[in-house]
Fold this protein.
Amino acid sequence: MRDGWYMKRGRRVEQRMVFPNDHPVYAGQPKGLRQVVMERFGGEAVKGKRQEDLVRMLEGCEDFQAQTTLLEEQALQRGDRVIFGVKFHPELAPIEAAYRSIAKSLRISNTTGSSAGFKERVEAANDTADLTLTRIRKYFRSSREYLRHYVEGKSMAEIESLRKERRKHRGASPSVPQGPDDRPKSSYKRDRLK
């Protein structure tokens, strides 16, 4: 975090985002959100506030509004410009699509109803038949297409309408195994009505 500033009684006050080295408890450690807000607005402003409220208070401060991200600063040094980051654009991250395939496989195959062995089931879902090298290449191609459309200046609504026109059926979803040993074991007899 970079140091900030705020106005107090008509004077500009520099605010460090790291505790001083002579601090009795947190020497040299970064300050938390609550501490930063308390230094700016006082202890009464912090009482009973949740994190969202504290963030909202700092969003109104000039120094936080004017601060650029490290990514933007490095891009400007190279002569580039950042339009937006990928944080809120999962369509630009192919790994997100791969995670969707893994999550889908886990939802379908996780029929145990118990947390025992969950870690092993998650690891097994990573080796799903649905996630092939061809599928991963499709995810990367899709991300490149989204990026190309963004570079051309298209909005998300325009991109989605273009993709709907060319969408094809992608095949059936993976099915739940139904072999004789894969069926859940019941605790009652099937012929109980006879």
